[in-house]
Structure formats: C-alpha cells, structure tokens
Amino acid sequence: MSMVTPLGHGSPRDSFLPRCAEVSVRVERNDPVNEEYRLMVLRAPDAVLNCSPGQFFQLLCPVAGGDTPFLRRPMSIYGYDRAAGLLQFLYKVTGAGTRGLATLREGDMLNVLGPLGQGFSMPNEWRRLMLVARGVGLATLAPLAKEAQRLGRSLTAICSARSPELAMSVELFRDCGAEVIVVTDTDGSSAPEALRILIEDRIARDGVDAFYTCGSSRLLRLLQDIGARHGIPGEIAMEQQMACGLGMCQACVRSFREGDTIRHRRVCREGPVFPIAEALA
Amino acid sequence: MSMVTPLGHGSPRDSFLPRCAEVSVRVERNDPVNEEYRLMVLRAPDAVLNCSPGQFFQLLCPVAGGDTPFLRRPMSIYGYDRAAGLLQFLYKVTGAGTRGLATLREGDMLNVLGPLGQGFSMPNEWRRLMLVARGVGLATLAPLAKEAQRLGRSLTAICSARSPELAMSVELFRDCGAEVIVVTDTDGSSAPEALRILIEDRIARDGVDAFYTCGSSRLLRLLQDIGARHGIPGEIAMEQQMACGLGMCQACVRSFREGDTIRHRRVCREGPVFPIAEALA
Amino acid sequence: MTDLSTRIGELRLANPIMPASGTFTEDLADVFDLSILGAHVLKTFTAEPRTGNPTPRVCDLASGMMNSIGIPSKGLDHFLTRALPFWARYDVPLVVSISANSSDEFARLAEAVTVPGIAVIEANISCPNVEADGRAFAVHADSTERVVRGLRSATDLPLWVKLSPNTGEPVEVARAAESAGADALVVANTVLGLAIDVSTRKPRLGNVMGGVSGPAIKPIALRMAYQAARSTSIPVIGCGGIATLEDMLEYLIAGCAAVQVGTATFQSPTTMQRLLAELEAWMMANGIRSIAEIIGTLQEAGDGVLSVDVM
Amino acid sequence: MTDLSTRIGELRLANPIMPASGTFTEDLADVFDLSILGAHVLKTFTAEPRTGNPTPRVCDLASGMMNSIGIPSKGLDHFLTRALPFWARYDVPLVVSISANSSDEFARLAEAVTVPGIAVIEANISCPNVEADGRAFAVHADSTERVVRGLRSATDLPLWVKLSPNTGEPVEVARAAESAGADALVVANTVLGLAIDVSTRKPRLGNVMGGVSGPAIKPIALRMAYQAARSTSIPVIGCGGIATLEDMLEYLIAGCAAVQVGTATFQSPTTMQRLLAELEAWMMANGIRSIAEIIGTLQEAGDGVLSVDVM
Ligand SMILES: Cc1cc2nc3c(=O)[nH]c(=O)nc-3n(C[C@H](O)[C@H](O)[C@H](O)COP(=O)(O)OP(=O)(O)OC[C@H]3O[C@@H](n4cnc5c(N)ncnc54)[C@H](O)[C@@H]3O)c2cc1C
Ligand SMILES: Cc1cc2nc3c(=O)[nH]c(=O)nc-3n(C[C@H](O)[C@H](O)[C@H](O)COP(=O)(O)OP(=O)(O)OC[C@H]3O[C@@H](n4cnc5c(N)ncnc54)[C@H](O)[C@@H]3O)c2cc1C
Ligand SMILES: Cc1cc2nc3c(=O)[nH]c(=O)nc-3n(C[C@H](O)[C@H](O)[C@H](O)COP(=O)(O)O)c2cc1C
Ligand SMILES: Cc1cc2nc3c(=O)[nH]c(=O)nc-3n(C[C@H](O)[C@H](O)[C@H](O)COP(=O)(O)O)c2cc1C
Ligand code: FES
Ligand code: FES
C-alpha cells in the first residue's frame, strides 16, 4: 500500500524516528491579517521545529465563550524558524476550534502537536516550479517558496482570490524571489479556462518542471489535465477531517489512484502531500 | 407538608411572586480575605436586589483551567445594597465551582440566579438575639446582623474559628452594634461544653429571645438542647447538594421533625432557613 | 406569518417546547410566565406515597449531571386534590407522568387520572432508578408491549410512552409501544451511570447508580429519537441534552414533532423561554413558515469524498 | 516499593494501562516509547479485507467525539505477515482484536491467530457500526453466549471479550460471556449516537450513526464495568472516557483490574505515559503498595443525611 515518490511519501516505517512532540507553547502574536484570516506566532522549542514545508500541526484549541472544541485542529505550518525558535500558523476563523484560537492573546499558552505528516518533495530535477493556490492553500505553500529560494529554484506563484485585496502572502512570495501572478474572480482571471491559458502559456514560454497546489478540486483537476498533457509531475496538499493526526484512527482517509486500483491513504500520515496524478478530486 | 413559623417558612404558594431572576452581572471585586476565603462584589440590577438575610443565589461558575462545573453553586448572600446596586458573596475555595469563581477578575461577567429560598424571620417579640456560627456560616449570618441593627434588636454574635485570626466578619458584626465573642479551637473555648456554659451564662444574665445558627450539626444539637431547656426558639440555615435551586428537582431534601412525624423538605425552597427545633442534625 | 404550532396526534400544541418530567414544577413561575409553553409536563408520580432515594441525589459531570432522585411521590390523592387544581389556571395542555411497579398498577393509575383537566398521560416506563440494576419495562419489547396494552385499555386520554435509552432493542421497543396503542413516544429518559469520589472511594450518589442527563447524552438520545421516528408512524417527542437552538433543531430534523427540555433548565431556568424566541427568529430569518417544514428533513449522509467500495 | 503490576487471569501485566483497540498503532512510537505500556491492543481486524465506512468518519461533540470508522481491515494475511512481525520487537503482551459477521467466522479467525507472538485474543463482539442499526452479538446474552463458546473452543489463548454499552441486559451479557469461557471482559465499547449539522441538515458522519467515546460516556461505561465486575468472577478491564488519574482510579475502585485508554490519546498522545507516572506518584503519596489495594474497594454510598424511610 506504500507508494514511492522522490521524497517522503509512504516511506517504510523505520524511517520514522520519534520526531514529533506535544508541547505547550507561548503565543507571541495572534493578529488579523485581513477580515477572515489571522496570523499566529508561537515561541516553540527546538523539539518541534525540525519541520519541512507541507507538514502540519494539530492544535488543541482552547474552550472559549460557549465553544467546546474537543478534537485537535490540523493547521499547516505557515512559517518556522529554528534559529529564532518561532512557529507560525495562518488560519481562517470558521468554527468552534478556530474561534477558540482567535481568542488567544500574547502570553497565553497553546498546546501543539507536531510536526506531522509528509511534506513536499523537491528533487533536483525540479528546477522551474509553479505554485497555484487559493485562500488558505496559500498559507500551506508559503514555506515551500522559502525552500525553493534556499535551494535556488525558480518559482512562479499563481495566487487566486476573490478580489485583489484578499490575495494573501503575495509579499511573502515576492520576498522569496518568486514571480507572482494574482488572478481574481472579480476580473474573471481565476476561472479554470483563463488559468489554463495562463499556465499553458508559461509552459510554452519558460518551461515548468513541477506543479504544487492545495485543496481545491477544481485546481487539482486542471493541473492533472495539464500535467498529463505535458508530462509535468507535481504535488498537492490535501485536507480531510482528522481525529488523531498521527495515523492511528483512520478518520482521514481519501482515495488515490495507484496504477489500476484505487486505494485509501491517510491524509495525516501518508500525506497531507500527495502526487497530483494520484489524487482523486 | 407546609409548616408555619413567624415569617416565610413554607408559605402557601400564592405568596411567591415572580421574584427571582437570571442575570449576568459585572464583577467589581473578587479578592482573598484570608487564606481560604474570597469576597466577591457584583454590580447587580434592582431585579435581583430585593433580598432578605438568609436567602441565597445560584452562581453559574465559569469553566476554567480544566474544571468544568456544570450545575450552579449555591451561595448565601453576604451583603446586598439596593441603593448602591451591589451584591456580595463570601466564599471558600473548595472544588471545581469555587475554583472557577476565584478566577474572575474585575470587569468579568458572572451569571447569577436569585434571590432564592426563605430567609430568616425576626418577629417583634424576638428582641435579644444570639447568633452562633463558624466558618462560612458567619457569611450567611452577616446580613442578619444588619437587619437586627435596622430593626433595633440587640445582638450577641458568637464567632467560632480554628484560631483568632481566622474568625471572620468580626468587624462587620461590631459595626452592626453587636457584642462579639470569639471562641477558638486553639484555646478550647469553641468546644461544645465551653460554649454551653458561655450561652447558659448569657441567658441567665441578659436573657435570649432567639438563636440563629448555620450548618454545623454540633452547634445545631447544642442549640436544640439549650433551646428546649429554656424554651428559646431559633432558626438555622442549612446546606444540601442542589441542582435547580428553585424547588423543581427534589435534590436538596433533608428530614425534619414535624410533630410526631418526620418529613422531607427542600432546602432550596422551604429553606434554607428552618426552625432549629425541627431540623434533624 | 410564522406558525410555531405542532401536532401530536389529535392534540395541537402552540409550540413544540415543553419541560421534561421531573425538572419542572410551579416553582418555575418565579422566573417566567409558564403559559408560553407548548405543554406542561409534571413530575412522575405513583399511586402510593414514596420517599425517593437517599442523598446525595445529584452530582456534576463533565458535560451534564447525574441524578438518583427516584420518584418521591405524594400519591394519587394529593395529586388530584392539590396539584391538579393549581394547573387548571393555565390554558396549556397538562401532561401527567405516571409510574408503577406492575402492569396492573399502571393501568389502575391511568384510569384514576383519566379526569377533566388532564390532556395527556405520559407513562414513564423507563425510569432507571426504580428497578433493580436499572432495568425497567422499557428495556425489552415484550414488557413494553404488555404494560402499554394495559394502559391503553384503561384510558381514552392520549397516551405518550416515555422510552429508555438503556435498551439494546430501541427499534423493537418503539414498535411495541406503537402497536400496543401509544399515541406518541417520548425519547428518551436518562442513561444509567455511575460516578465515584476517588478521595472517599464512595459513589457520588446515595443510590450508587443514577441517570445521566444533559449535553453528554444528547447524541445518544438523538440517535434513539431518530430510530423511533423512522421505525414507527406515531409522533416522537425528543428529549435529552437540549440546551440550544441547534440541539432542538437536530431533534426536529431527525423526525421529532416536539421536544422536552430538562437539565438545561437547571443551568438556566429561562432556557425554554429563550429557545422559543430563538426558534421563531430562526424560522423568520430562514423563511420557514411552519414547524412541519423542519420535522423529519434529514438529508443523505456523506461528503462524497471517499469511495468506500475500494481498498 | 510500589508494585504497579496487575493480573488478568494467568497473565501478569507490568502495569494496568493499555490502549483501546482502534486508537493505537505503531505510529504512536513517534511520541513515546511504547514499551512502557501494560499491553499492546491492536485495531480490530477481520479475516477478509474491508474498506470501512464513508467519510466524514469522525466528529466533535461537547465532551468527546463520535466515529464511524467501521473496521477497515487489510485482512488476515496482511496481519500475520506484515503487522505481527513489527510488534515482536516489544517485550509487551500483544492483544489482537478480531471481529466477524458470524460465530463460525469468528471461531475460524480465532484459530488462525492462535500463533506465537500473540498473548491474548480480544473479541470485539460489540462494534456498533457494523450490524444493522448498531445491533451486535453483545446486545443479548444468548448471542454473546453462542459466539464466545465458539471462540473458546477455537483457541487456547487467553480470550478477552469486549462488551457493548448498547444493551439493556449488561449483567446477563457479562455472565453469559463468563460462562461461555471468557478469561476477561473489556467494558466497554462506544455508545451509539447521532449528530446532525443543522445548516446542511445532514448527519455529521458519513455512516449516519456512530460510536460516542470520550469523557461524555465515562459514567455510562464505568457503570457497566462496575456491573460486570460485581456480577462475574473474571477480571474486568475498564474502558470509556479515561483521560485523568481520577478517571482511571474510578474504574479500579469500581472493580477493574486494568484500563484501556482510547479517545484521550487523540486529544493528547502522551496520555498513557502521563497516567502511568501519575498513578505511581499517587500510590507513593498515599502509601499504597500494590494495585490490588485499589481494585474493587468501592465503599458504601450515602452521606447519612437523609432518612428515606419517611415522608
Ligand atoms: C493538513 C491540513 C492543514 C490545514 N491547514 C490549514 C491552514 O493552514 N489554515 C487554515 O485556516 N485551515 C487549515 N486547515 C483547515 C482547518 O483544519 C479547519 O479550518 C479547522 O479544523 C476548522 O475547525 P473549526 O472548529 O474552526 O471549524 P468547524 O467547521 O466547526 O470544524 C468542525 C470539525 O471539522 C473539521 N474541519 C473543518 N474544516 C476542515 C478542513 N478543511 N479540513 C479538515 N478538517 C476540517 C475540524 O477539524 C473539526 O473537527 C487544514 C486542514 C488540514 C487537514
Ligand atoms: C444554601 C447554601 C448557601 C451556601 N452559602 C455559602 C457561602 O456563603 N459561602 C460558601 O463558601 N459556601 C456556601 N455554601 C456551600 C457552597 O455551595 C459549596 O462550597 C460549593 O457549592 C462547592 O462547590 P465546588 O464546586 O467548589 O466544590 P465541590 O466539592 O467540587 O462541589 C461538588 C458538588 O457538591 C456541591 N457541594 C459541595 N459542598 C456543598 C455544600 N456545603 N452545600 C451544598 N452543596 C455542596 C457543589 O454545589 C457541587 O455540585 C452554601 C451552600 C448552600 C446549600
Ligand atoms: C432531576 C431529574 C429528575 C427526573 N425525574 C424524572 C421523572 O420523574 N420522570 C421521568 O420520566 N423522567 C425524569 N427525568 C428525566 C428527564 O425527564 C429527561 O428525560 C432526561 O433528564 C433527559 O433530558 P435532559 O438531558 O434535557 O435533562 C428526570 C431528570 C432529572 C435530571
Ligand atoms: C476512532 C475509533 C476507532 C475505534 N475502533 C475500534 C475497534 O476497531 N475495535 C474496538 O473494539 N473498539 C474500537 N473503538 C472503541 C474503543 O476501543 C473504546 O472502546 C471506546 O472508544 C471507549 O473508550 P474511550 O472513551 O477511551 O475512547 C474505537 C474508538 C474510536 C474512537
Ligand atoms: S487523523 Fe487519525 S489516522 Fe489520520
Ligand atoms: S435544588 Fe432542586 S428542589 Fe432544591
């Protein structure tokens, strides 16, 4: 049931060292970045900072104001800095858990478990990278842009949003040396057909070695199709309801194409990053 | 099943006007008064300030730090001031509920339900009053001392405590013009036999028309005995586990002597104040 | 116009909100006007006087409470001469809850309370405290069938049968009550539990075991109400852990025609008053004109993500 | 010297703390050293591969969670050739949990797993998701008796039988399992529940109903563990809502010889490690030298305040 891709996915058991930890960490900042999203900065110990882009944490959201979140909530790592001892999450306030998170103030403590899951891979032959994402997906891909810069890869980031002012992480991508293209619903440039033209154009002009994306089935289907046509591989970070986040409960399974068969894989363990070609939308 | 005493007890249903309310009130103060007790001052609306001494409130204690108190907690009214719009409780931190109360700070809100139950009576012929209590019982009797002063009765307050510095509300009783006698475990003066001598001595010297006490079965038995000997009536405020506090659930029943039979009465509704002679220790 | 009324068989209630037996007395009139309720459901009583269980009778749980009140009862005479006249002042259907130790006693008591002023008899065949180890009529289909048949022949008042979650055959029990002549089912009573004070090593309740109620049991009682609604064609009145508008809507969507509110009233005595206002506001905000547009509207499950026919 | 060991029949465990089936895999080794546990209890598996239930498979509750994972299983062969060798590296008794749709299948599977490396067979006769409407062998005494008898004749390994709280006859079921040859009882599995998303009017779980676990069910499972311990003479292993030292002590005091921890591990994967340290510290602080001084030491109920023989 394991699958082999350049880095990480479904690695045999013995490659898993005890490498995640449950720790209570101090909130340094927890501020709105726009109407819907907040950025949380935590002072974290080294034990949980051996992260790679695409991994996530399980946050034990506080009980607050009538909300009683019970299970932990999964959140992609938005940023990590081992030297500075900092860990960042960018999140959207949607329900009981994230409402609880939003009540935290500087100095409060938050219990986090991580880092979890398999992150993105970036094999040597992937030199020209293209990232296409929307909404919270841009949070998940942010540390990937830093990694691309560190490894000297070229990166084009297509950031999709309802309107230009809601496009997130644009500055962060630019700071990582990426070329940023903002597409929006307002001017129709985020529509699949418009995106297809944009991407095909880039492939023709500069070449693309690999795609990275997140969540949305619409984007997944588009990239699967373009990838198949041009033989371009890629990876997607997926979401699913979770209980344990560690691989024990099998709550988070999704279906994947594996040759001729379809198999279930755990988003928390084999993922959350999977080959675009194998994911089922 | 109803019983008739000068004021209040077991009054027929029609004398109950809609008179208690559930309100969210602002915490003005919530400070330790000694190692074990805290004084909470609340800014309360007129709707809940038509109180009488001996009545209580049901407090919806906040969920805090892993404690999840579910049922409300009963607390005697320590003080009320309709003109100033203030309500006070004096409480001992013992378990989940009171630990939650202790976390409240100025400006926080607390949901309270009250005033509840039947308070103390003070018929005209009760001129020379004697109050005997210990620990938190002194909190319950505090507003009674004010009432005695208002009605021009003479009051002797015997305050029992482990040691002199733990005797509570002594100043408050003095301010109400009461003669205060502190008896303690340290010097043996709080022992039943010592108390008996003290009380008998007062009866002989100045006369006592009525006793008031709280909680402790040891004090109850002593006062029942002295009261029977000398024909002195009196009242006791009792405690019992509660759920509703309004008379609906029958959680809070205790047994009472009623002529030749023994009957159950609800501490929250027929009480918490009962005739000393009828209470079963 | 928002119509909050709901029908339970022949009976039309002004709204679907009523108290649960044992959590409601005239004392609540101290807090709000009881005439706003859909029905008045009284504490279970027995023909003969009873004292109930030793104290402590209640304890706190993480998300609810447990009680072993038992059924202290002042008996039939007291009920007819003292309690009944009080409730006559309200123009709200009066539901009396009765209990007994045998089918015959049950039937005799039902007959005795078939008197003017009573709109419905609710048979509490499920109280887990009374019988040994929490067993009750409502545990098995056959004992349910027998007791309900006896009740049915003893009264022509509408007969609501209150079921217990402490059964392994909830569907069979619901069907047995229906076929024996129940006009509606009340689902459910408390779940049998135990809590221990580890410092004293004593049970937290005087009666050792007791009935769990409140939010902790909501998913359990809701499941059972759904099973009953789906497997019978008589109205189901949902009960168990209802404290919020969402809780109430879950029961209605699952198929209940009305709800009973118990423990929540202890935490907040104004709960039913608030729920009524919130229900009306929610219906108006969502353009829903009648309760019938909510009852039994559960949609198909699934998020369509997982194909389960593969490995 | 504090002795944390406990005996389950012939088997001595180093301590009374073990995971609950379905909430534990080798993945937990990422967090702490699994060799500290009293036993390793694996996820239930079936002889044939199965996929489990549609998503969503879990949801949050006020004080716990609900799951309808089902029993996705890679089958017997995968278990024997892939899973078993992994666990051999630990010197901790291995408990395999099995399930099947009939008594015969159950017995055949028990026979097939009677192999070196396996210390105990835990028969999950109680999983509420698999059978229609949550019914399972463990609902009735007769079906329990039949399936356990078959299992008993198929294996000479110690046989633990895991019971369900979704029964109206917990005592009869426990006795039936004992008389049919169970060496110990695991009490209990999840409680069948339902939760609805009122905005979409859909069930929160893909399988509609699911099993409630966590603190919400603790009083229910504890009650049942107490009933089982008191009515049989085989060891009972308590399970349901254990998250704190006090929770664990309640089960031991009620008569359990060991405990299983499930849902709490999801909230905090270090729970079992912490409980072990806390238990030892508590025993030392209270001068308790062995677990036997805790097991089954429930005291008489009552606060002596209320005389119940009067009105
Ligand atoms: C691997 C992974 C990474 C994620 N990264 C981010 C991120 O960086 N920023 C961000 O804002 N969100 C992210 N999400 C989504 C985030 O987990 C949910 O928004 C959050 O759990 C919602 O919880 P809630 O209680 O506020 O909302 P509710 O809707 O009340 O949640 C109810 C339940 O559904 C679950 N749930 C709801 N939405 C999702 C979802 N999209 N995926 C999985 N479970 C969900 C919750 O965990 C909870 O158990 C990620 C999800 C996954 C699986
Ligand atoms: C009418 C009345 C008036 C009271 N007035 C005061 C007061 O003025 N100041 C004060 O400090 N205490 C007073 N008490 C006692 C107070 O209610 C308890 O100390 C408090 O409920 C303890 O709650 P907890 O969660 O902190 O403790 P826990 O011990 O954890 O409580 C567990 C449960 O037991 C109940 N309980 C515990 N002790 C008592 C008790 N003595 N009486 C009734 N129920 C109890 C709690 O309400 C709760 O449901 C009064 C009690 C009654 C009945
Ligand atoms: C203190 C108390 C007393 C109860 N007494 C009765 C009773 O006499 N008869 C009855 O049918 N149910 C009784 N019940 C059960 C409730 O009517 C209701 O079925 C149960 O509490 C679940 O609803 P809830 O979670 O809203 O409380 C009682 C419940 C409580 C908490
Ligand atoms: C996600 C999940 C999966 C479970 N799978 C199984 C299982 O496969 N076999 C089984 O016997 N019990 C299973 N259970 C039940 C647990 O073993 C345990 O009996 C129950 O959850 C109560 O304990 P808890 O409250 O500590 O979780 C499962 C529980 C959960 C939450
Ligand atoms: S969340 Fe438990 S296996 Fe993935
Ligand atoms: S606490 Fe409910 S009747 Fe007294």
Shape descriptor of chain C reads globular
| Secondary-structure element series of chain C | EEEEEEHEHEHEHEEEEEHEHEHH
Fourth CATH level, the homologous superfamily of chain C: Aldolase class I
Helical proportion of chain C, percent range: 25-40%
Number of helices of chain C: 8
Rg of chain A from C-alpha positions?
A: 18 Å
Question: Over all CA atoms, what is the radius of gyration of chain C?
Answer: 19 Å
Class of chain C in CATH?
Answer: Alpha Beta
| Count of discrete structural domains of chain C | 1
Distance between the termini of chain C: 52 Å
Bound heterogens, unique: flavin-adenine dinucleotide, flavin mononucleotide, FE2/S2 (inorganic) cluster
Second-tier CATH architecture of chain C: Alpha-Beta Barrel
Strand order of the largest sheet of chain C: 3-16-15-10-9-8-7-4
- CATH hierarchy class name of the largest domain in chain A: Mainly Beta
Query: Which strands sit side by side, in order, in the main sheet of chain A?
Result: 4-3-7-1-2-6-5
The DSSP helix count of chain A reads 5
Largest interface (C-beta under 8 Å): C-D, 68 and 68 residues
CATH topology of chain C: TIM Barrel
Short description:
The complex is a heterotetramer, with 2 copies of chain A (281 residues) and 2 copies of chain C (311 residues). Helices cover 20% and strands 32% of the residues of chain A. Chain A is α/β, with parallel strands linked by helices and 281 residues long.
